[in-house]
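User: Just a sanity check before I run the rest of the batch. Below are the structure tokens for the first item. I only need the designed sequence back.
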């Protein structure tokens, strides 16, 4: 049971006066968070990419605010999503690292989530797409053939249609309100992260069955000609086809929007694009000229376009606040031989930042972010320091929800920043890498990375993780956004100032 619930809101009457470009709306706006997977700052044309074009994302930027200094809470998925949905930094809680597909629920039913808050504020709440925050009570105990419980309804989502974890992890099925969609009861599903099922082929032993080969890991159960992490058997009728995942997710999202068009809704839309395995629909295959990674970006862009067009068709675009961002920075080869490096050409998924997915360096968490709503100034670019940790409290302020004591402990409202009325943003934010090395980045661009025993380079992807036994200090500003000059020795006061901030945060 939750300790307490938010009070019913006083609906916010938004008027055109706020920033002058929209119509007056008389109910709380619908809220859609489009949370991309592994899309880097430099992957969208509105952020400077020239080798790829993302017109639908660019249109949201033209109609809204594009942020250049926005950060996920972590450089991998599970902790980032945990931080976003709970308003608590993931490094405060054990067990928030990259989750297996049979992990138990990481956000526990007694925790107060963003979905709880918006539900209590009168919203219909839905989650569609990638989940990756565990399901059921305990790891490995889920009843995949019955109802997986506890589930998303226990943490505030009225509706859910989700992938348990990632495209590369079993079980490779969609789960609707706790039940595997399309399951034939005479062909039950079994899932194991410990041992293979006798008689079932694996990527390791049966590479001849693969249409896409792993480059590292990913050599266990074979589904749709692609080997995954983890073992599964059965459930044939329910297995996803990777080529159709984006369409399935998009259509479920559109369905949720249609169904709830007449009342305020909150949709958490986690795309599978552009996580591995990247197997976009044939209408994108070969279209980017950059291989599967680029094609998946085009697929993501189409999802954004379809959502926007649908809102427009229903006449509710003006009254819908869209937040588009990514769970972590980019990776090129993340475990499948999909030619991503060979075909990357001049494209820089990480923009001008160092590192990438998994890293403590900026590209790990400095993600693309756009906020679009009829009430915001069109085409604004904001350099304000912003963290996804603050979206929770910002939406509480927007909707007038009161948070129960102790909920979203690290979240501070950044509503004015999100709506473009404040250009300063946070004084500082905390970032986290794969092995939980923490960094502090302040609004002046000073960045301190704590000492860490973690590896300097991620062994599979070759990403620089930003780990060092020595503390590191960088200045990220102006025309020098690349963390390559350690300033610790020359600026001991700055290093000490940021170290103290971090130590104080860690004591909370
Ligand atoms: C890693 C996987 C990688 C990806 C990542 C999670 C291997 C070798 N690598 O362990 O492919 O699945 O986990 O990505 O298995 S995330 O974006 O969901 O955090
Ligand atoms: Ca991710």
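Assistant: Here's the designed sequence for the first item:
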């Amino acid at each position: 049971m939750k300790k307490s619930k938010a009070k019913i809101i006083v609906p916010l009457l938004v008027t055109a006066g706020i920033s002058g470009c929209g119509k007056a709306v008389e109910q709380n706006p619908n809220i859609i968070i489009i949370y991309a997977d592994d899309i880097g700052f430099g992957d969208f044309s509105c952020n400077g990419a020239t080798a790829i074009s993302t017109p639908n994302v660019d249109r949201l930027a033209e109609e809204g605010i594009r942020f250049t200094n926005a950060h996920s809470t972590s450089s991998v998925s599970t902790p980032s999503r945990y931080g976003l949905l709970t308003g608590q930094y993931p490094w405060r809680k054990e067990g928030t690292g990259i989750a297996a597909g049979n992990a138990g629920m990481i956000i526990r039913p007694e925790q107060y989530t963003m979905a709880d808050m918006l539900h209590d504020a009168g919203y219909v709440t839905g989650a569609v797409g990638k989940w990756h925050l565990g399901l059921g009570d305990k790891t490995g105990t889920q009843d995949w053939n019955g109802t997986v419980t506890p589930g998303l309804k226990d943490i505030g989502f009225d509706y859910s249609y989700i992938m348990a974890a990632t495209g590369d992890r079993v079980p490779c099925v969609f789960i609707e309100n706790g039940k595997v969609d399309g399951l034939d009861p005479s062909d039950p599903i079994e899932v194991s992260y410990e041992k293979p099922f006798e008689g079932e082929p694996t990527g390791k032993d049966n590479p001849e069955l693969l249409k896409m080969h792993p480059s590292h890991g990913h050599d266990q159960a074979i589904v749709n000609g692609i080997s995954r992490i983890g073992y599964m058997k059965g459930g044939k009728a329910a297995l996803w086809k990777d080529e159709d995942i984006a369409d399935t997710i998009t259509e479920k999202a559109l369905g949720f929007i249609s169904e709830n068009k007449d009342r305020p809704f909150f949709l958490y839309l986690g795309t599978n694009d552009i996580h591995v395995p990247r197997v976009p629909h044939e209408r994108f295959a070969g279209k980017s000229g950059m291989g599967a990674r680029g094609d998946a970006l085009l697929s993501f862009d189409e999802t954004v376009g379809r959502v926007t067009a649908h809102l427009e068709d229903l006449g509710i675009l003006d009254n819908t606040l869209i937040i588009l961002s990514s769970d972590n920075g980019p990776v090129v080869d993340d475990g499948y031989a999909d030619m991503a490096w060979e075909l990357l050409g001049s494209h820089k998924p990480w923009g001008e930042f160092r590192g990438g997915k998994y890293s403590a360096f900026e590209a790990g968490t400095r993600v693309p972010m756009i906020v679009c709503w009829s009430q915001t100034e069109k085409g604004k670019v904001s350099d304000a320091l912003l963290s996804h940790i603050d979206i929770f409290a910002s939406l509480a302020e927007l909707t007038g929800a009161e948070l129960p004591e102790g909920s979203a402990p690290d979240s501070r409202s950044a509503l004015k920043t999100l709506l473009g009325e404040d250009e300063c943003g946070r004084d500082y934010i905390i970032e986290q890498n794969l092995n939980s090395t923490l960094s502090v980045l302040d609004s002046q661009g000073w960045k301190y990375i704590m000492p860490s025993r973690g590896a300097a380079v991620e062994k599979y992807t070759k990403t620089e993780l930003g780990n060092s036994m020595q503390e590191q200090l960088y200045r990220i500003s102006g025309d020098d956004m690349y963390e390559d000059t350690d300033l610790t020795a020359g600026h001991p006061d700055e290093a000490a100032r940021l170290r103290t901030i971090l130590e104080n945060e860690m004591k909370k």
